[in-house]
Fold this protein.
Amino acid sequence: MLVSLKEILKIAEAKNCAIGSFNTPNFESMQAVISAAEERKCPVIIMHAQVHEEMGLCKMEEIAPIMLFMAERASVPVCVHLDHGTDLDYISCGLELGFTSVMYDGSALDIKENYANTCIAVELASRYGASVEAEVGSMGAREGCSEAGESIYTDPDTALWFVKETGIDALACAFGTAHGMYLTEPKLDFERVSKIKSMIDVPMVMHGGSGVSPEDYREVIQRGIRKINYYTYMAKAAAEAISGKSYSQFHDAVNDAVSVMKADVTKAINIFCK
Ligand SMILES: [Zn+2]
C-alpha cells in the first residue's frame, strides 16, 4: 500500500529500526526491492533520483506511474520518494505525478538559500499531503567518491533551527558517509548522530548507506537513524553477477540480475528492520 514518508517513519520510530530506502531506476530494481520487502514483511521506500534522469537512466514521468502502481499493489507499506530534487520545478512535477514524499536537496547552496527553497518545497508538498526531507551539511557529490572533511558535517544547532523553521518531516544528516563507492572504510561520527537526535523532533536520514559495515548500521540505528538510502552496492552486485557470463537471451540476464539484487536488498533489510 502507498504511504507517505511521515507515516512510514512513524513505524520505524515505533520499532526503533530504519526503513531501507532504495533507488529504483528501472522495473527490475523495483521488482527486486518490493519482493524482498514483501517476503520480509517490512515497509520499504522506493526512490527516483533526479540525477538518474540527468544520467539518462529513466525519465521521471515514465517511471513514476510504474513506481506508484507497484507500491499500491504491494502487501507492505511503500513510500514513493523523489530523491535529491535539486530544483523546485522538478519537485513540483514529482508531486503532480503522485510522489508521496520528496527530498529537496539544497546542500550545495548556502544555508539561507537552502532554508528559503526548503520552505517553498514544504509549502508545495503540503498541497498534496506529501512529506519533505531536506539536508543540512553535505554528503558531498551525489555520485562518485568524495573526500568530505568534518567541516561539512551537520552542525547540531543549525539542524535544530532548520527543522523548527522549515517544518520538514525528515532531516538528512552528514556525519561521515558519502555517496557512491567507498575507497577506504568510512569512519562515522556517532556522537554527532546522538547529539542531533537529542535536539530535533523529526526522524534522521543517512545517505551513502551502501558499503557501511553491519555493526555501524546497527550503531547509527540505535542512535536514531530512521531511513537509510542504499543503492550503489545493490547495483554493483547485479553487474558483477551477469558480467563475464554468456547469455543467449537478454531476459535470462535480467532474471539473474533481479535475483541478485533481491538477495542484496534482503540482506540490507535484515540489518535495518529487525
Ligand atoms: Zn543521497
User: Anything to note?
Assistant: Confidence is low (pLDDT under 50) at residues 143-148. The chain has one domain: 2-272. The first strand starts at residue 2 and ends at 3.
